[in-house]
Each structure stands twice: as C-alpha cells, then as structure tokens.
Amino acid sequence: MLRRAHFGMLAAAALSLTLAACGGTDDPTAAKPTPSKSSTATSPASSSPTPSAALLTKSQLTSALLPLSQMPAGWSTEGDDTPGDKTFCDYRQPHKARIQVSRSFQKGGGATATVAAVGIRQYASASDAAESFSALEKALETCHQETYQGSVLKYSQMSVDKLGDRSLGVRIESEGSTALQQFTLDGPVLINVGTGGLNVEADTPTALLRDQVARYEAAARK
User: Fold this and answer.
1) Which pLDDT tens digit goes with each residue over 91-141?
2) Rounded to whole angstroms, how far apart are CA atoms 116 and 106?
3) pLDDT (0 to 100) of residue 148
4) What's the mean pLDDT in 7-31?
5) Are 118 and 47 in contact (CB under 8 A)?
6) pLDDT at 4
7) What are phi and psi of 56, to 5 degrees?
C-alpha cells in the first residue's frame, strides 16, 4: 500500500503545480478594469461565451470559487489556500498573475483519501492570460517527467471538455497514485481544477471544471 507520507506529498505536489513562475500579488490596484482583447491569433473559437475583460477583486474571485455546497456528496473543505510557485518542469511564465486564489477539499481519509483543488489566477489582461496559457501548452509538449521532492512525477496530456477560450488536461502519475489536472483560459483568468489519490476518475475533475468555469463567468458578468 502506498505510504500516507508519499500520498500526501504527491497530492500536494500534483495539485499545487501552478501556472505562474512567480507568486501573485494582493495589490488592490491590480483589480482595476483595463479593457483588452484576447489574442485571436493563437486562440481557437470558444465553445462558450467569454466573460468581459473587467477584472475582479481578490474577494470577488474568492467568492467565485466552488463552495462545499456545490461539491458532490462526501467531500469536506480543507480550506482556502495560497497557491505555490512550482511549475511543470520549472518552466518560466511570460507574465505574473496579479491575483490568485484556490480552495481544496478532501474525501475519505488515510492513504485512500482523495483530494481536490480549484483555483483562479487573474492576469492584468486577457492577452497576458492567453500568453501564459500558451506557455503552459508549450511546456507540456516536452515536459513528460521530473523528480520533485524525491519522487518521480510522470506527465501526459489528456483530452478535456472545450470550455472558455481554450482548455487542456494533464495526467500526473507517481508510484501508484494519480492526479488529474484540467486548465481553462477564460478571458483574463486561468482556471484550474484537479483531483488526486489512489483511485481517481476523469469524470470528477471534468464536472468540477465545468461548474467552476460557469461560476466564474457568472461573477465576471455581474
């Protein structure tokens, strides 16, 4: 059986892999609306309407995170988190997120527990967010494995629902444990949802991402 210590490391490492090379800022001036356009040169047509480019405050973004009441039965809240700065194979981002918020959940306990995390990273503009998403896509073309905190993490891309402007998914495996991460570019933000544990199914993060994107878009249009 996978040791609890290793499971905890993998879950934390896999679900905290972030989209920005540096941490975000809580500077309230970063939340002032700055009209901008998404980069149409690198972004295919969206399957859902993109919210306006008006930026939200940290409080508004935190409120837009999925609450426990919208989680499936059996989950408990682990709390709101400050995302870390670990990226896939330590690739560098072209822009730093201005505001970043996340929330984690747990189902079950011990070595067989399943963890889930949702997060939103808001950039200065939709174009900055699009360039950051493109950097993630490019990194995953060559980043297939790395050693982190003494364990080998293996990465493989997986298909995901087409949400927001662009979406992608990553399967992360290490010593019998699996984490599934899904990312969506939506206007000026990058939204991520992930689940990790010994037995995880793609249906769970897929449903959570769909709900998280819808919740963010509703908040962005208010």
Assistant:
1) 888 999 999 999 999 998 777 788 899 999 999 999 999 999 999 999 999
2) 6
3) 82
4) 42
5) no
6) 39
7) -105, 160
From CA 143, how far away is CA 136, in angstroms rounded? 10
DSSP sequence for 84-128: ----GGGPPPSS--SEEEEEEEEES-GGG-EEEEEEEEE-SSHHH
Q: Which long-range contacts (CB under 8 A, 24 or more apart) does 40-44 make?
A: 42/130, 42/134, 43/130, 43/165, 43/166, 43/185, 44/165, 44/166
pLDDT of residue 39: 36
User: What count of other Cβ atoms lies within 10 Å of the Cβ of residue 150?
Assistant: 7
Contact 100, 36 (CB under 8 A): no
What per-residue string of b and e applies to 60-84 under the rule 16 or more CB within 10 Å gives b? Answer: bbeebbbeeeebeeebeeeeeeebe
For 59, the 3-state DSSP assignment is helix
Q: Predicted confidence band at 174 (pLDDT cuts at 50, 70, 90)?
A: confident
Task: Specify the residue for token string 């939709």.
Answer: 126
Residue 116 CA from chain centroid, whole number: 11
Nearest Cα to Cα of residue 11 among 142, 121, 104 = 104
